[in-house]
Amino acid sequence: MALLPLFPLDIVLLPGTPLPLHIFEPRYKEMIRECLANDAPFGVVRALEEGIADIGCTAQTITVTKEYPDGRMDLVAEGRNRFEVVELNEERSFLRAEVLLMPDEKGSVADEDRTRATRAHLEILSLAGAVQDLSAADPNQLSFHLAASLPLDLDFKQKLLVMRSEGERLRALAEYLEALLPKLQKVSRTRQKAGGNGHAQ
């Protein structure tokens, strides 16, 4: 089994989500150069106080936007496939691991769950004056697309990453966003009363 290079970060990468990175540590410069040379993915796992999360997401570099004379680089990668860490390998300067990919279990998605999650997401975006474009979203991974566009709690994002069905993820996301929405609406009303930025959104 080929070992997957791992990049522990204080984020949760979701499939289909862009990930801009600034690579500056020598070990990760080495790792990314190898991945680029072989057109190979690397794994992004959430860094925890006691190590790393068991479930992560592979990332494929889409483009290197800038290279610096000292070897640092800016790039944009994209989340691809979820995986479970089976065994860590510390023989190199960077972590590698034997992993198992985690495809979704087959199952249908209730229209109600899709509608609830999409509606709550739209309402939260509108509070921030943003718009929603779902045209490019993979219908089988709509939950990841919705969750990635909001600054959600990392624990919740990790929970979504672990879930094995889109129906389960959309239900959880709808409940989470519907619980969050009244708090955000209250903050928005308070800002408007206080004058905010001089005009109501």
Question: What is the secondary structure topology, with strand pairs?
Answer:
Elements: E1 4-9, E2 18-23, H1 26-38, E3 42-48, E4 51-52, E5 55-67, E6 73-89, E7 96-101, H2 111-127, H3 142-148, H4 154-162, H5 166-193
Parallel strand pairs: 1-3
Antiparallel strand pairs: 1-7, 2-6, 3-4, 3-5, 5-6, 6-7
Helix pairs in contact: 2-3, 2-5, 3-5
Explain what this protein looks like in three dimensions.
The protein has 201 residues and is α+β, with helices and mostly antiparallel strands. The chain contains 5 helices and 7 strands. It has helices at 26-38, 111-127, 142-148, 154-162, 166-193, and strands at 4-9, 18-23, 42-48, 51-52, 55-67, 73-89, 96-101. The protein has a 5-stranded mixed β-barrel with strand order 1-3-5-6-7. Strand 3 (42-48) and strand 4 (51-52) form a beta hairpin. It is globular. The chain starts with a strand and ends in an 8-residue tail after the last helix.
Task: Provide a short characterization of the protein structure.
With about 200 residues, the chain is of the alpha+beta class. About 35% of the residues lie in helices and about 30% in strands. A five-stranded mixed beta barrel has the order 1-3-5-6-7.
- Cα end-to-end separation: 54 Å
Biggest sheet character: 5 strands, mixed, barrel
Stretches where pLDDT falls below 50 for ≥5 residues? none
**What order do the strands of the largest sheet run in, or round the barrel if closed?**
1-3-5-6-7
Summarize the helix and strand pattern as letters: EEHEEEEEHHHH
Arithmetic mean of pLDDT: 90
| Helix content estimate | 25-40%
Strand content: 25-35%
- Rounded to the nearest angstrom, the radius of gyration is 19 Å
Q: What class would the helix/strand composition place it in?
A: alpha+beta
Secondary structure tally, helices: 5
Tell the overall outline.
Answer: globular
Number of distinct beta strands: 7
